[in-house]
Amino acid sequence: MSVLDLSPVIPVVVLDDPDRAVPLARALLAGGVGVLELTLRTPTALESLRRIAAEVPDVHLGAGTCVRPADVHAAVGAGARFVVSPGTTPSLVAAARDAGVPLLPGVATVSEALQALEMGVSELKFFPAEQSGGAAFLAALRSPLPGLRFCPTGGVTAANAPDYLALGNVGCVGGSWLTPDDAVRAGDFDRVRDLAAAAAGLRG
Ligand SMILES: O=C(O)C(=O)C[C@H](O)[C@H](O)COP(=O)(O)O
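== 2-dehydro-3-deoxy-phosphogluconate aldolase ==
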């Protein structure tokens, strides 16, 4: 199954403390969200990936902020089953193919989308979504580029997610709102579970 079809929302997670990783993944799962993208933005991100992969195998685990081929290999070595990048380069596409995992590479323009298509990638992250034209931009791509599907991410919230999810070329959206910093720091995983439950119900 495509990464875009796992859940209406892919939670984008920035985690400082690996001790929070497993309870956070379990809270998302308890809320009905069986996928998460853990960003490689913190020094302990690979450790958090390893713990989630080992202890919460039911969650479809991905790694975000992969900006170099080495990030892709490190993330997959730590247990990531898909990788996400804010942009699209031939070396990232090649690294994901070598590693045998799907890559959701970011694009923000029509030319970038066409370049991705030339590299054989037709499922893309639209990033940064709100700043790059939002749902209206993606709606305009539908007829000239019918073969492309998107996961808009960047500025997507519970309030504007339905506008994206209503589009025929959007598989899911990505966003950080399911795992607010203050809730994660306080260990308030009931709040994460409730936000996940609301997100899981956005379409379906
Ligand atoms: O880390 C990456 O690879 C990124 O591309 C950035 C994230 O997708 C955004 O940071 C989403 O964050 P929100 O806008 O708060 O939902």
